[in-house]
Amino acid sequence: MGGRQPYPSDLPDEAWELIRPVITAWKARDPSVSGHEGQYEMREIVNTILYQARTGCQWRYLPPKSAVYYYFALWRDDGTTETIHDLLRWQAREMRKRHEDPTGVVLDSQTVRASANAPKDTTGLDPGKKSPGRKRGIATDVLGLIIAVVVTATSVHDNAIGIALLDKVAAAAPTVTKRWVDAGFKQAVVEHGADLGNDVEIVQREPGARGFTPEPKRWVVEQTFGTLMLHRRLVRDYETLPASSVAMIHWSMTDVMLRRLTRTATPTWRDAPQASGSGR
After folding, report:
1. Cis before residue 174, ω within 30 degrees of 0?
2. What is the pTM of this model?
3. Among 19, 261, 23, which residue's Cα sits nearest to residue 145?
4. CA-angle at 11, arms to 99 and 278, nearest 5°
């Protein structure tokens, strides 16, 4: 830990070992251009990114801010973040006795407010929810694990988000043949799915249902959104670039999968503090 006190969000040894080979291989391919090879421990960089995802703090409050964002942006742009995420998803599926790639996915979108540093040309106004900000579209498997992510302005219609998600799923998991979406996605999404050789089913709300009622198949994607909200960085969209928003979603889900794979848990604000050794 570099002499500092550990944080609850720090990766346990067994969790770090699951992603260390990917980071080590990346480091071998991409030596430091500044000549400061080994100045920063890669495990500390990952721990700091996960600390930010959990706490929601600003980049400038992270020590060392410049190094952490440097690696965050580099891994975002060269695909390393998604590679780590997808590797863990395959392992999480295998742990549940599933094949590496799914045959069915569930699509949904979520509107969140954007922070002041998000450029206006990447945000908008959702005419339905009256919320300025961005939309997150995700596709999950039936276990709630993320297959694809899209981040847009809130003014973008769910049809466009659904079509983009269908394309991403087709590229990431060509084994998928069935997709479930909610009523916010219209016929254009169904037709695009047919063009891709997939069956897209719109899951309608039960007639007369009041309040929150889990809908068949679709409840898993809603549960995933709820799980991601335990990471305070995602409560709003604080990122300047939509690509950074996608990367932060991947890091947050990476955190979730690492905890599941190692059967550990990060304490949340709901957890009661443990009693000290003095009994106070």
Report:
1. no
2. 0.89
3. 261
4. 130
Structure tokens at 115: 């922070």
What is the full DSSP assignment across 208-234?
T--S--PPTTTHHHHHHHHHHTTSGGG
Range of the domain at 204: 101-240
Contact predicate 152/172, CB 8 Å: no
Buried b (16+ CB within 10 A) or exposed e, 167-200: ebbbebbeebebbbbbebbeeebbebbeebebeb
Rounded distance between C-alpha atoms, residue 84 and residue 75, angstroms = 10
Q: C-alpha angle 117/121/126, rounded to 5°? A: 95
Are 148 and 136 in contact, with CB atoms under 8 Å apart? no
pLDDT digits (tens, 9 = 90+) for 40-98: 899 999 999 999 999 999 998 988 778 999 999 999 999 999 999 999 999 999 999 99
- Provide CB contacts within 8 A for 156, sequence distance 6+: 124, 135
Residue pair 160/137 in contact (Cβ under 8 Å)? The answer is no
Q: Has residue 144 been placed in a domain?
A: yes
- Is residue 253 in a domain? no
217 contacts: CB under 8 Å, gap ≥ 6: 106, 142, 180, 203
Give the closest residue to 135 by CA, choosing from 100, 105, 160, 103: 160
**CATH number of domain containing 113:** 3.30.420.10
